[in-house]
Write a structure and sequence with these properties.
The chain is an alpha/beta fold and 361 residues long. It is built from 13 helices and 17 strands. The longest helix has 14 residues.
Length: 361
C-alpha cells in the first residue's frame, strides 16, 4: 500500500535523536502530524507537544489510522494496550528505533496496513522492515489483505485464521466467488469452487457474495459493495420510515446490508433531510440523477403514472438504482410504504445465471 495525502499518520518521539528521525520520515511521507515530548528543546514547525506520552496517546490514538512510534517497543506496548479493540478496527502501529535501523510492524499488520507502513518507514530511514505475520514470512497470500485491497467487507473476522492457516499448510479452500474478486489471487491448486449450499465440511471456506445465507461459522464471509438502493419519498418523510423499509427489503430478499455501497435518487430529493440522515447513519453516499436521465431508463418493471404526472419521470427508485449500477441488474423491484419507495440493483459484472433465486438453493 502506498501512502497518499489522505492517509493521516502520527509520528511520536521522546528523544532528540527520535525527533531528528521523525523529521526525516515526515519529509518522505505526506499527511504527517508530529508529536514530541515537551522536554525536548528542538523546535519543529507544527509539532504538537505533550507532557506525558500515555495521556496524549489516550487523546489521539483513535484519531489517526497510522502511528509511528520512535522509541522502545515496551514503552509503546504499555502506552497503547488499553486502546486496542480488534484487528479489524485497530490503527496501524509501527515502532522504529531512534537510529532508524528497524521499523517493526507491531499492530494491525494486514487490515490496518502496518506491514506496508513498516516498509514505507524503512524506505524513509534506510532501515530494515520487521514483519512477523506468518503469511508474509512464508510468502503466501493473506486473505485479509486480499479482502482489503478488493474493498470487500469482512463480515466474520474470526474466520480469517481458518483461511490463512489453509494457505500456510496447503490445505484445500472451498470458495464461492461469482465476482472473481478473490479466487484469482489464491493458489490455483488449493481452491475448490463450491455451491452456496455445500459449505458443510470443516475445511476452510470463503463466501464472496451479497446474499445473506445461514453459513457455518468457519466460512469466511466477504461482502462486495455491489448493491445500490434507489429511493424515492414524499417530502418531509422521516428517516426512520426510510430505514425500516430499506432494512426490511434487504432482510426479506436475503441481501446483506454490508454490500450496500450507495443510495440513489432524483435531483428533487437531493436536499431531503430524511434521506440525508439515512445516508449519514449508514455511512453511505447518495448518487443524484436529474429527471432527464431517469426518464431515459426504459427497462423499469413498475412505472408510475402518478410519479410521472408530478415530476415528469415514470420511475425514481428503479431507474436510479439501475443508473447507479451502470445499467446493472434490478434484483429487487419497487417496494413501498405510504411515503417511501425502494428498489435494489446489483452491478452487472456477474452472469445473469447468478440471480439470487438461482444461488440460494
Amino acid at each position: 500500500m502506498k501512502s497518499t495525502a489522505q492517509e493521516r499518520t502520527a509520528i511520536w518521539a521522546l528523544t532528540p535523536n527520535g525527533a531528528r528521525l521523525a523529521r526525516i520520515i515526515a519529509e518522505e511521507m505526506p499527511g504527517i502530524t508530529l508529536f514530541l515530548s515537551d522536554k525536548l528543546k528542538a523546535t519543529i514547525d507544527g509539532a504538537i507537544r505533550f507532557a506525558r506520552l500515555k495521556d496524549e496517546v489516550h487523546r489521539q490514538f483513535a484519531r489517526f489510522p497510522r502511528h509511528i512510534f520512535i522509541m522502545a517497543t515496551g514503552i509503546v506496548v504499555r502506552s497503547i494496550a488499553d486502546h486496542l479493540a480488534h484487528k479489524t478496527t485497530d490503527p496501524a502501529v509501527v515502532v522504529c528505533d531512534e537510529a532508524g535501523q528497524f521499523a517493526i510492524s507491531l499492530v494491525s499488520g494486514h487490515i490496518g496496513g502496518a506491514n506496508a507502513l513498516a516498509r514505507e518507514t524503512a524506505r524513509a530511514t534506510g532501515g530494515l522492515p520487521v514483519i512477523t505475520t506468518a503469511t508474509d514470512v512464508n510468502r503466501v497470500p493473506a486473505i485479509d489483505v486480499i479482502a482489503v485491497e478488493n474493498q470487500l467487507t469482512i463480515e466474520n473476522p474470526d474466520a480469517i485464521k481458518n483461511v490463512n492457516m489453509a494457505l500456510l499448510t496447503g490445505n484445500p479452500i472451498f470458495i464461492h466467488d461469482p465476482f472473481g474478486k478473490v479466487a484469482p489471487r489464491l493458489p490455483e491448486g488449493q481452491i475448490i469452487p463450491t455451491a452456496v449450499n455445500a459449505f458443510w465440511q470443516n475445511d476452510a471456506g470463503i463466501f464472496v457474495d451479497y446474499l445473506r445465507l445461514d453459513l457455518p461459522p468457519h466460512v469466511l464471509v466477504l461482502r462486495p459493495g455491489s448493491l445500490v438502493a434507489g429511493m424515492g419519498c414524499n417530502r418531509g418523510t422521516d428517516a426512520a420510515e426510510m430505514r425500516d423499509l430499506l432494512v426490511e427489503t434487504f432482510r426479506t430478499h436475503n441481501l446483506a446490508i454490508s454490500s450496500l455501497r450507495a443510495l440513489a435518487t432524483v435531483d428533487l430529493k437531493a436536499d431531503e433531510p430524511g434521506l440525508l440522515a439515512l445516508a449519514a447513519s449508514l455511512n453511505l453516499k447518495i448518487t443524484i440523477f436529474n429527471r432527464n436521465r431517469l426518464s431515459r431508463v426504459e427497462q423499469v418493471p413498475t412505472p408510475s403514472t402518478v410519479v410521472e404526472k408530478h415530476i415528469g419521470v415514470k420511475s425514481v427508485c428503479e431507474a436510479a438504482a439501475l443508473l447507479a449500477t451502470h445499467r446493472g441488474r434490478l434484483i429487487v423491484p419497487k417496494q413501498k410504504t405510504a411515503n417511501v419507495t425502494v428498489a435494489v440493483a446489483a452491478d452487472g459484472y456477474i452472469s445473469s445465471a447468478s440471480d439470487p433465486a438461482d444461488r440460494s438453493t
